[in-house]
Design goal:
Elements lengths: L1 E4 L1 H22 L6 E7 L2 E5 L11 E5 L5 E5 L5 H34 L3 H7 L1 H37 L6 H46 L3 H17 L5
Antiparallel strand pairs: 1-3, 2-3, 2-4, 4-5
Helix pairs in contact: 2-5, 4-5
Length: about 240
């Protein structure tokens, strides 16, 4: 049985139902685990002792049929975009946790193991190259997906202008390409953030390295200039 009701009427129904439940208990009470499901549908609160198939993915409350008290609830199912965003956030959390763990275990030893900043910078070359490659790949994929989506939309628009129907396969392909483009752009933003965070991490490690080695900012700048000078002053052989 399904009942559409407001919060006020739901409360009234529970209060009225309580004596009936007590009276029925003399004849044979309902099972203690019997419950009602309540959810929102088209702006109205709907309660039922059976959950219809079209409400399985909707947020709902579970209420004890015996006491009228709330016993639990279920959040609505996530959309495809929300699941994609959750996957990105989970990936970022794993990356952050791995970076923090590596820093805790190896930071001090690593800082004391290198004689100068050039040796220390080479440690980050591999990580930087991986993140840079992820950024480039995501940007390329986003551009490719966008171009393909524009082509499909133009084709669909030409068919409509010509009075021809847009085929279901083409419409489905447009929706799929758009969803892929949205996911790829989110990945691109995530990789770009990782790259910026890596720059910040490297700068912080270099700062701690200088502090532990007793290197002043002026000395670090002079060392960087001397390191770059040979490349700039190398004569060109003819």
């Amino acid at each position: 049985m399904t009942v559409r009701t407001s919060t006020f009427y739901l409360l009234a129904a529970v209060l009225v139902a309580a004596p009936l439940v007590h009276a029925q208990s003399k004849k044979g009470a309902a099972p203690a685990n019997k419950k009602l499901f309540c959810w929102e549908e088209k702006g109205q609160r709907v309660c039922s002792d059976a959950l219809p198939a079209d409400a399985v993915n909707v947020a709902r409350e579970e209420i004890s049929a015996a006491s009228g008290l709330r016993t639990g609830g279920v959040d609505r199912a996530m959309t495809d975009e929300e699941r994609a965003q959750a996957a990105i956030e989970a990936q970022q959390q794993l990356i952050d946790a791995a970076a923090a763990d590596m820093r805790r275990r190896t930071d001090a030893a690593m800082l004391l193991s290198y004689r100068n900043e050039d040796e220390l910078r080479r440690v980050f070359n591999e990580r930087t190259a991986i993140v840079d490659n992820n950024v480039r790949t995501a940007r390329y994929n986003a551009i490719s997906l966008r171009d393909g989506l524009i082509s499909l939309l133009q084709t669909a628009g030409d068919r409509e202008l010509a009075g021809q129907p847009v085929q279901k396969e083409m419409a489905a392909s447009i929706h799929q390409r758009h969803a892929e483009l949205v996911r790829t752009r989110r990945l691109q933003q995530s990789f770009e953030k990782q790259r910026a965070d890596l720059d910040t991490e490297i700068a912080g490690i270099l700062e701690r390295f200088r502090a532990m080695k007793g290197i002043t900012p002026e000395q670090a700048e002079d060392a960087a200039l001397k390191s770059a000078a040979p490349e700039a002053s190398t004569p060109v052989r003819r």
